């Protein structure tokens, strides 16, 4: 019984760790040349930091099924806005 419980727990932990590693990451123009484009996304926030914007882009890209994104436009000031191309 302990073996079955241990195997079930180990399986659950491996699924959780895989999900954490499945987030989309930012790529350069050179890296994107070898990838397939799948559209674009944009995010906007008021009073956030650049790291918050990158997190939002990564999260939105992951939700869209992308493995990577490349920022094509970014504006800052009181409100941030960024647009990114998505890649498989």
TrEMBL record:
Residue intervals of the YdgH/BhsA/McbA-like domain: 35-88
Q: Spell out the Basic and acidic residues composition-biased ranges.
A: 52-63
From which residue to which does the signal peptide run? 1-22
What are the UniProt keywords, alphabetically? Signal
Name the InterPro entries on file: BhsA/McbA_stress_biofilm_assoc, Dodecin-like, Stress_YhcN-like, YdgH-like_sf, YdgH/BhsA/McbA-like_dom
Name any one Pfam family assigned in the record.
YdgH_BhsA-like
Q: Which Gene3D superfamilies match?
A: Flavin-binding protein dodecin (3.30.1660.10)
Q: Which PANTHER family match?
A: OUTER MEMBRANE PROTEIN, OUTER MEMBRANE PROTEIN-RELATED-RELATED
What is the name attached to this protein's record?
Peroxide/acid stress response protein YhcN
**The organism of origin for this protein:** Buttiauxella gaviniae
């Amino acid at each position: 019984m302990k073996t079955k419980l241990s195997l079930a727990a180990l399986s659950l932990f491996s699924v959780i760790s895989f999900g954490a590693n499945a987030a989309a990451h930012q790529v350069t123009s050179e890296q994107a040349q070898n990838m397939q484009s799948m559209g674009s996304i944009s995010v906007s926030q008021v009073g956030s930091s650049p790291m918050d914007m990158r997190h939002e882009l990564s999260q939105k890209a992951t939700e869209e099924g992308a493995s990577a994104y490349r920022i094509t436009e970014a504006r800052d000031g009181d409100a941030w806005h960024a647009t990114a191309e998505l890649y498989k």
